[in-house]
Design brief:
This protein is 7% helix and 39% strand. The chain is mainly β. It has one domain. Strands 1, 2, 3, 4, 5, 6, 7, 8, 9, 10, 11 and 12 form a twelve-stranded mixed β-sheet that branches. A hairpin with a 2-residue loop joins strand 10 and strand 11.
């Protein structure tokens, strides 16, 4: 990774018990999406698939800008699932979420609009190209979220769930947006003739408590 212009520092503390899969944790910073996409590709070339990408923030504050935490597990790792406790649902739905599965970032804006950003590697240009998908969202009191876009023939429903995990520095709250539309039908929600990358994946955010 050093060869890919990442300044690597090995952590000397115990591995967090809350990490159960290959995980990337990042903070908001300049060109964060490009760096994350490049790092995921680099790690994949080493045989590790990143299964969880989380934005680490607390309200309007973030921690240690321009840093990325990377947690990698061996193939024979057997998770010791931690006990999770549910905290009061006080985190605003309007927020920024990330997805390792779709390599996308979802920004739910307070004005009920949303923007998906997906970075796709372009072999000819040897660089990443950003694709943006825009639309509107609505929610109800049962934590159901509905995303709509002019290029979709149906709206995409998501369910918001909460959990609390222990970390080395205390606790963090995980908020996940899980798709309720059949994830196996990739692209079937699009209007005929529309080509668009799939974004019907779990998106999440981690909030330090």
């Amino acid at each position: 990774m050093s060869a890919a212009d990442f300044n690597v520092q090995e952590s000397k503390v115990d591995f967090p018990n809350s990490i159960q899969v290959n995980t990337l944790v990042y903070t908001p910073s300049n060109q964060a999406n490009d760096h994350i996409t490049a790092l995921i590709a680099q790690v994949k070339s080493l045989g590790y698939d990143i299964q969880s990408v989380n934005l680490l923030a607390s309200d309007n504050h973030s921690f240690t800008a321009n840093n990325i935490g990377l947690y990698l597990l061996p193939d024979n790792y057997v998770p010791d699932l931690p006990k999770l406790e549910v905290q009061a649902q006080t985190i605003q739905l309007a927020n920024e979420y990330g997805s390792a599965q779709c390599a996308s970032f979802l920004d739910l804006k307070e004005d009920k609009h949303f923007v998906f950003e997906v970075n796709i590697w372009q072999e000819q240009q040897q660089d990443y190209q950003s694709h943006y998908i825009k639309g509107t969202w609505q929610s109800d009191q049962f934590d159901n979220l509905l995303l709509s876009s002019k290029n979709w023939r149906v709206s995409l429903p998501f369910k918001r769930t909460f959990s609390v995990e222990d970390t080395l520095d205390g606790k963090r709250q995980m908020i996940k947006l899980t798709p309720q539309y059949n994830a196996q039908l990739q692209g079937s929600y699009l209007k005929k003739g529309v080509e668009q990358v799939n974004i019907n994946c779990v998106h999440s955010i981690a909030i330090a408590l």
